[in-house]
Sequence to fold (117 residues):
Amino acid sequence: MEQTTLPTEVILTHPKQSLGNVHLDWSPQPGTYFDLEGQTYTVLERRHRYQLRSGRYRLHKIAIYVQKTQHPVERSLVAGRWVLGDATCAYSARSEIVRCAVNPEGPCEGCRYYDPA
Fold:
């Protein structure tokens, strides 16, 4: 079975709601960005849903849980991976999902908590 033909349900985590089903030609993994109808989302989780057919479980559907991303271009390269925000700040979470502990929504530019590490 070819994975690109499977429907992928996009679920917003907060507030929890389904954004619909899409057919993707790639496999979004947690930490990657995903554009849908002009809005950028960060993939938080990926789940596979199976269905029993002819005595065998077969991959039926994929669900990705996402959150809205305000400033996806604000990234830093740390140890070979891209993280959100300015990694030179002492409060940086160095994560693909969260910018920092004190200002997780961002943006980093002009943040009053900026503290060079």
The CA atoms of residues 33 and 42 lie 5 Å apart. The first strand starts at residue 7 and ends at 12. The chain has two domains: 3-68, 71-112.
